[in-house]
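Entry type: protein chain
Record version: 2
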Amino acid sequence: MSRSTDFDFDADVVIVGASFAGAACALAAAQRGLRVVVLERKRDPGEKLHTTGIIVKEAAEQTLLNRVPAPMTRRIEQVRLYAPNLSQIALAAPGYYFLTTDTPSVMRWLADEMRVHGADLRLGCAFTDARAIDGGWEVEGVGRARYLVGADGARSRVARRCGLGEVRQFLYGVEYEFPGAKLAQPNALHCFISKRYAPGYIGWIAQSPMGIQTGLALRHDAANARVPDIEGFLLRVGAAGGLPRHLKPGATRAGLIPCSGPVMDMARDRAILIGDAAGIVSPVTAGGIHSAWEHGWAVGRAIAAHLRDGGPEAESIAVEAAPRFRTKRALRWAYDRLQFDWPFDLLLHSPPLRWAAEQVYFHKRRG
């Protein structure tokens, strides 16, 4: 069989999804001179978002996200953790911070960055189908591509079409945005533990560049789906978190959040999953931007190295570069099965619980 040449293909890589993981992969590959096509079903990359958009210090300093325009971010240096009875502790680590973001504007900025670096970003173009061919994939609406990358979320169509692993465990989250509003304590990320309102996860309130973001997520059971009671949650915790009364939400975000760690079989036969599609989300904090960015970037670089320099197969690099979250997966298992309100009410101020909380929020983010 003859070896395929560049002229046999319309693109080196087709990436489905233009969120953080997809953008990182596209930028990494395009900077190495690959022909990159990014398919994004939304016409506006800043609309209908599922992400809170909190960027941790590592991502803000060690990735291209350090170039996000300053007006699109707000620095937060403290976490206030609330027990179910609303007693609280302040958590911080020297030099550590988070950035809340004007997430719609950040996504539009990333779209511009992809175009500037030569990626062919096609907004309003959904992935519909693909079939395996010699040396790559025939992608409907695009043509022949050497690699197909799925960055298309927790219910990845690329995963299903290519026979790759699929996310099996989820949280379901809802977030309200209150434009122009200001918290009484705007310099903290307020996190609330409550088995009643957030079984398997937490609620949160944070100041962002646009106003206030409030959210609630809980364990998702497809057979017994439950919608988060965010209205009841805010009535319960709003005053403690410094939320002004009588606010009316503007934008609402909702969606599934992977929580089981990386999927099995995330890469095979020049098809690779990244980001939420690959389960690259912390099973405990559900934070995904830093991990998704690093994994997407590694995959983009690996594809370029394989095609340009004869490096190792990108599929193997994709698997090796995926964080395992072993400790956090164990914590997820325990939290799912052993969550009770009374230990947090009783032990919130104890040194062991404070230590554990600081490990989750500030350290060992790869664990």
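Comment: The radius of gyration is 21 Å.
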